[in-house]
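On clarity, I found the account of how folds are encoded harder to follow than it need be. An entry of this sort, consisting of the sequence and the corresponding backbone structure tokens, reads as follows:
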Amino acid sequence: MTVGNVSGIAETDPGYGQLIAALFRRRLWLVGIFFGVLSVVTVYTLLKKPIYQSSMQLLVEPNYQSKKDAGTGAENQFADSTVEIDYSTQLTQMRGSQLLQKAVALLQTDYPDLKAAELQKALVLTQVEEDKVKTKIFQVVYTSDDPEKTQKVLKAVQRVYQDYNREQQKLRLTRGLSFVDEQLPRVERQVDRAENDMEQFRKSQNLVDPELQSRALIDALSNVQKERQSNQAQMREVQGRYQTLQKELALSPQQALIAARLSQSSRYQSLLNEIQKSELAIVQQRLRFKPASPFVQQAIDQRQRQRNLLADEVRRILGSNAAQVDVKGDSGLSVGQLSATDLTLASALVESQVNLAALQGRAQSLAEAERSLQQQLQRFPSLLAEYGRLQPKVQIGRDTLQQLLKARQDIALEIARGGFDWQVVEEPKLGRQIGPNLKQNILLGAVAGLMLGSVAAFIRDTMDDSVHTPDDLKQATVPLLGMVPTLQLEEGLSALVPFREAGSLPPVMQVVHWQPFRESLDLIYKNIQLLPSAAGLRSLVVTSALAGEGKSTIALGLAISAARLHQRVLLIDADLRRPSLHQQLDLPNQYGLSTLLTRQTPLRQSSDIQLSHSYTDIPLSILTSGPIPADPAQLLSADRMGDLMQVLEQTYDLIIIDAPPVLGIVDAMLTASFCSSMVLVGRIGHVTRAELLQATALLGKLNIIGIIANGADLAVNRYLAYDRKGQYDRKGQLASL
């Protein structure tokens, strides 16, 4: 067994722990790049010239202002009809090389080498914002290596901007005045033509405002239609009442009127009473006398005289309508005999007739009015269309003329007033030093170095295919049986001093008796026993993908753990090419596995096999490899190997075989073919993922029950966290078996 230093760190978190572990493994890359970047930044900062900066602020009234911000001022609308520039355009113009060239010309005396391109590059113009609202203040910032130069440059720029503003404002207003003077005559002619056309239209159509008049006609038509609907409802109501009264009286309105007049005449009623008395007298006389009797004739004559008087009274009452009443007959005498109720009904019937006639006349009048209004409205669509074409021309012309007149007046006042200087809110001062900032640059360099170093470390770690954590071993698609810790150099080796001084145990046995190592192997062996695939386990092959992964030490540890649990255990060194078990345990190797496989005598029982025993009190049997044969693969594949395993399994509860590595040679697969189970040992930081996957692929058809992580620091850290006696220091250096 060999002991060497490896890099590692306890991983407690599956995400961040792996990142920290990768950085720790590549700490040389991280530290190197970090200090390299920091050194470059520091040297650059110390060698760089100081940088100074000065600023000023201008209140920029809208010389070129967009229509959106101009408001309703006529001087802004008509000052220059071809210009619509916002603050962004104003800033662009102020950054232009033409204006800056004028500033360079003013600075030629003090700075003859100054160029417009240099000034344009170092000059920064921005619009000041307050609470995310852009103001009318422009901030001008200039940066240079001379503090006086920054101030002088800004003063020259200020002068150029103010002169430029005055010139542009005066030119703009002059152009605007010329534009207004050109537009006024044309607009006046347009207004005159539009007003003349409107006047002719009103005279020809005898209208003042067709819209108002058409609206009045529409309202009148609507009222007439509403009145017609109301009149029709009343007619239906009166018609119903008229029909009802006529049905109850069984008389026409004319007959009801005649009967009502006669019934209300007292004289007519008296004559009817006399006639009724005469009728009664005639009946009595006929009962007493013969029809030809003078008494009967006298009564009949009297009745006739009374009827004649009744006829005269009817003519007096009814006039020309008297012919409708036959007073000579008996039926005519009943016409004027209406009761009080009948008189009321007759009066209501006559009234209904009168109302119905009135409503019918009103309906006819409303219908005629509606037809008249509709005829008048039919001519208004064309009139309104013509009026709609004429009226906007008049209104727009008047508004435009009024605006032009007001604009002419405002522009003239602006020109007469003069002076459109931009106000200086903040004067330029001597430049203040803004760089280089040593602390800031060092901090930025440290951050950049840390980031670049971390990226380089991650890239380098990504390029490394080695297995660094037990989680990486899970890619082998077999269960992780457990983790074997690395040896703590300070406390772990000091704990082995008594054994070394006594010389009683070889170094490998000293490591096997190290408490964290032994506890880890006990746990692994228990996990193997609990696996369903390891039920009835009698023989177990321990191998690895590569040499030097600690499989021999782990095989010995598993054998001791099984023996401590009262198992009869046999440990066999099956590495016939490079045997090491006899060297680690200081055992003779003249007789061993190769000797048994080359003999021709049959194996009947385990007493025929010569075994070696360890130096401890643990009952552990060991079969070394024996002399190295010429062809190990031939020996391991012979039937005698199977016979040997059958004989040994009859004597021992568990046989653990230390087999050669899987990759490169076939010995491990041959040995495993005669055993019930197999485990793979993977050393953290030694084997790669590709080699591990290749090994598990080769052993896929065999009963491989799991993998053991060798050199996992997490295992010893967990053990030390549990050990409260402080026998093992957590700060000890890490090592692997």
